[in-house]
Write a structure and sequence with these properties.
Length: about 130
């Protein structure tokens, strides 16, 4: 497994995924409706997966709450709505958009400064969430 660039501050980073193929897992296009979230501990390099048990999939709670309970510091996703941007901010979780490809490709893009911090200007407006 390729580790995250150690120049990145040590943290837990999450990426919404469509499957569980390790660092080759495919990034999901809609962060709240993916089946799982990959969580990478940049200190240990450990990769784990968290099932999406949110109300988006018939469960309880919202994805930002799941991330907070898992101790996630940063969410890297393709995009998300304004409501989610606000909720992540209120929970102290940084969010970056523009993730694509695999978990490893997304982590590499993040380490290289190629992802954009999520805000109201780049949030998905079409879903009204």
């Amino acid at each position: 497994m390729n580790a995250v660039n150690k120049s990145v501050i040590l943290m837990k980073v999450s990426v919404p995924v469509m499957n569980r193929f390790g660092m080759s897992s495919t990034v999901g296009a809609h962060f709240g409706r993916v089946p799982a979230y990959a969580i990478v501990d940049t200190d240990s390099g450990e990769l784990s997966f968290l099932d999406n048990t949110s109300e988006h999939l018939g469960g309880v709670g919202l994805p930002p709450e799941l991330m907070a309970k898992a101790g996630v510091d940063v969410m890297l996703c393709a995009g998300l709505g304004v409501k989610a941007v606000n909720m992540f901010a209120s929970l102290g979780i940084q969010v970056f958009v523009g993730a694509e490809g695999t978990v490893q490709e997304t982590l590499d893009a993040f380490s290289a400064g190629k992802l954009t911090r999520a805000d109201h200007q780049n949030a998905c407006q079409e879903h009204g969430h």
